[in-house]
Fold these 2 entries.
Entry 1:
Amino acid sequence: MHSNIPDVKLGIVAVSRDCFPINLSEMRRSNIVKAYGDGLYECPVTVENELDMLKAVENVKAAGCNALVVFLGNFGPETPETLIAKNFDGPCMFVAAAEGDGDMINGRGDAYCGMLNCSYNLGMRHLAGYIPEYPVGTADDIVAMIRDFVPIARAYIGIKNLKIITFGPRPQDFFACNAPIKGLYELGVEIEENSELDLLVSYKAHAGDKRIPEVASDMAREMGEGAYYADMLERMAQFELTLLDWAEAHKGARKYVAFADKCWPAFPEQFGFEPCYVNSRLASRGIPVSCEVDIYGALSEYIGACVTDDAVTLLDINNSVPQYIYDEDIKGKYDCKLTDTFMGFH
């Protein structure tokens, strides 16, 4: 896991409506934990009322959980279970038990109905909760749902702790990079906008940095002999250190960063290279760097990195595919028309 991408620590809290057997929820919760294996903290507090809810939230927070599975082992108490999402500072998933792991008299939980009521209550309270498309299942079913939830939780946690650092204004006549800041704040993302001169000043201040030879050697090993320009390595290493040091010094109260930097037209003249390779090296460490001050592109790349735990980039829909290329390489091999295709570039 990259240090710039969150580590999800999951907990599961069972809820129980007090007119249903509490042991049914607890048994079904334990079955899920056993089926899941390591990595799922089992909260010992089963929530029947609001005071239980407060105790359960406190328990999972103390255990270090930053994402939560709220499990309706039976019908569940609508108000306390939805207030978990309000009081827990992290993403919450809501799922419910299918019938069949007990007799239909003492072992009937009616969690299907409870899940419908839960989703309605979340909506009325304007609370965010992740609900799978079909959120009712056996222990094995719910384990599969939880595993699908993990990358979603990772992205949610990352966004809420992300600062996007930019250098330069969006390029002239490039309205595709428009970036209303209010929308970022609404998502919980912080933003720091800087001038290209700020970046240039910081870059020049890194001249002669003692770390440059080691970074340049690493770049050379990565590219392989004959695949790089030796005179550029030092400049690119200096730039990489500039960005990494800026991120560390400017992330402030945030845990994670992404960059959106202007890379043309003045950049190559002033810095002596294009930053694409350095950008890709940072992306491989979970720190996306989008070109052209594409702020929402940087956010999209960061979300993709959180979901996949891999390096992510963006391709422009750049040009149409010539008819002869379509005829030679696509037609008859893939089920798509010429007008379904495009060439991507970046």
Note: The two ends are 26 Å apart (CA to CA).
Entry 2:
Amino acid sequence: MPSTSALSYSSYRTYLECPLRWKFLYIDRLPETPHGYFTFGRVVHSVLEELLRPLVVPSARRAGESDSQRTLDDWQSRARAAAAPALMSREQMLSQYDRSWTGEGYTTPEEEARYRTLGRDLLTRYYDRLVREPPQPVAIEQHLEARWDGIPIHGYIDRIDRNPTGGLEILDYKTSRELTAGDAKESDQLSIYQVLVESNYSEPVGGLTLYHLRSLTPLRVPPRDRSSLTTLYDRMGTVSDGLRAEAYEPTPGRHCSRCDFRSICPEFRTVPVSDETRLRDLVDRFDRLRNEEARVGTELRDTAEELHHAAEELGIHRLPGSRSVAVRRREEAWQYSLEGVRPELDRLGLTSRLPTGRPEEVRRLVRDPSVDPELRRKLAETGARRVKWYWELEGTAGDG
């Protein structure tokens, strides 16, 4: 597998949507066109990270899961060495927002202005809520790694809180317009984060939250059960197998309309001008032949059936033409239905002589004198002969 073998939620989702797009992004490292709503989300996340970091009181971590991990004793010794900084003021937060702002990806100055105003309003309301109801984060923007039954995974988790009712709560910020409780229940991202936290922290996961920043609404759901995590693991295993096999075929769909790589994708790449005429003629020829194939196939079946009826009426098998002789041939096959006699076969220990139920196996039993005659009769009566007629062409005697 390539060096990008550790799966994040975004890389997993990208491969499921289109393996070729995954290759363009994670192996070829091709840049995507910036979009204002992604830039907006990154800026807001960075400000929230700085705002909440003074509130972090780290929790005990397991050993050996993530490169950047620290134990609780490590954190406590650092805390004794330096006092935690105070929470920044609202004005300091907004100044941080202005310093972090970038206009990358916005299509017009008006669009950028709308988003910038939205961000200031969103952060101000969030700050007021934070002062009234301060959380108890144990980690902010925490990068975690794990091996999930052999599949390497990693992720950057916006926030991990200590749940007042016990355990840890995983929280992921969302700046999207709409968000529902159903989104939280179905979120593969939260499921992957749960696996990462359970692999890296000593305390259990007590809840999962998508936090809708525009409405300041935490959409909380219980942690995933083993069954739903197993289903996700199977899907991630399929992705991991595909990456190991370097299977990067495109999967066209509605998502193609927003893909930046259409010009180099085989599904949409345009034909060079120098080859247009030659390939257009080939396509037109293929189109004509395919239509002719369908027409001729129907006509051939109808003609064969008409010949069959004529041969049946006349009682002959050879019909001469101008250049060839049509010879009617018969293909015969027997089929047996053993359901009715299988209990008796089981009772007599004869089922092992019919491992596949093929007609030749049944006929061997029917002809075997050591088998009870009544059973042989019953076996024979389950059979039905099927006859298929077909035509062959032979050259006439006068052909050179």
Note: The chain has 13 helices and eight strands.
